Amino acid sequence: MSSVSDVRAELLRRSVPSSQPVEIELALGERSYPIVVGRGTSARVEEFVGSSSSKVAVVTQAGIPHTLQLEREVLLIQIDDGESAKSLATVQSVSSQLSRHEFGRHDTIVALGGGVVTDVAGFVAATYHRGVRYINVASSLLAMVDAAIGGKTGVNLPEGKNLVGAFWQPSAVICDLDLLDTLPIREWACGFGEIAKYRFLGVDDLVELGLQEQVERSVRTKVEVVARDEREGSARALLNYGHTLAHALETQSRLNNVDHDIRHGEAVAVGLVFAARLAYRLGRIPLERVAEHQRIVDSFGLSYTLPSWADRAVLLHLMRRDKKADGDLTFVLDGSGGLEVVRNVPERIVVEVLEES
Ligand SMILES: NC(=O)c1ccc[n+]([C@@H]2O[C@H](COP(=O)([O-])OP(=O)(O)OC[C@H]3O[C@@H](n4cnc5c(N)ncnc54)[C@H](O)[C@@H]3O)[C@@H](O)[C@H]2O)c1
Prior knowledge:
The chain is α/β, with parallel strands linked by helices. The chain folds into two domains: about 5-185 and about 205-230, Rossmann fold; about 240-355, Dehydroquinate synthase-like, alpha domain (Up-down Bundle), CATH 1.20.1090.10. Helices cover about 40% and strands about 15% of the residues. It has helices at about 5-15, 90-100, 115-125, 140-145, 185-200, 210-230, 245-255, 265-280, 285-300, 310-320, 345-355; strands at about 20-25, 35-40, 55-60, 75-80, 110-115, 135-140, 150-155, 160-165, 170-175, 330-335, 340. The strands form three sheets. The chain has a seven-stranded mixed beta sheet, covered by helices on one side. It is globular, with a radius of gyration of 20 Å. The site of nicotinamide-adenine-dinucleotide has 28 residues, from helix 3, helix 4 and helix 5.
């Protein structure tokens, strides 16, 4: 099996340096916006700032290189790192800084960062002055293929992840692949977990493609799903493929006080193969399809076995509390007609599949 570093090196080797950036529209009527994918594209940020904005607030984090060229007065706001920074306290701090600098209704927020920054800055944009314009400049692979797109914004509560939030669409999303030059290797693993997921949402095999093409195809898939179901009434729930076990694993890792012992994309990789095994046990897919899940996850250098610290009883309890579930065990599962939400999966089968994972 290749390591994530090997996969990244191979991906960059396969990339064509002269690839032209692409612009993909997320069609949501008057809330439609472009997603720009390619090298050097953050140089275009100014063109998406509102014409009536006199100020721009760049919300970011300390380790993220800031090279944005903006022609207005810029207020730089740094937030802390990690899930604990995705909090109402951070929202209050950012909002207060905006207010102290007389940031107005027509000004623009630029979120420059990974999913933590885009979720927090997006939620501030949704609520400050009852809603201001914002642009996502995604700087992590995961934000480029997932978090920065689709207008789901929000923060965590001590009681759980993403419990307070709003749907608020950005005016543009920029995925500047040059920003990935400084991204730590473990964060590449996170992005790979989500890209692997798209393979089962109808994207052809991505493994042989270069970086820009993989990001572009993933973005196109997310855009299609969000355009069909902006507020997660139906199709958008399928983007949570592999996430029921993944979220339980992430929560358990936090409960164990081993935060970051498993990262989101790594947990999704485990969750994808678990979901495939579950679908097989329920007679929904043949064994070869499970092997295909394993092959795809493997090809990104990710592991699909449960970590040694995983407590299956705790995971079962946490999966019952999943947002999709109503106290029962609900999963997005593969089947002959593709992915669908399956409710009331028998506990006995879930336990057995957990035992063999
Ligand atoms: N809103 C959505 O639809 C959605 C979808 C998926 C995930 N999310 C959220 O996204 C978050 C995870 O996002 P993430 O994986 O990007 O993690 P993250 O935002 O925590 O970023 C990971 C780390 O990489 C650093 N980083 C980011 N870009 C960098 C760069 N170019 N150079 C150097 N360092 C860089 C960050 O500072 C951070 O330390 C979670 O909170 C998750 O809930 C939201």
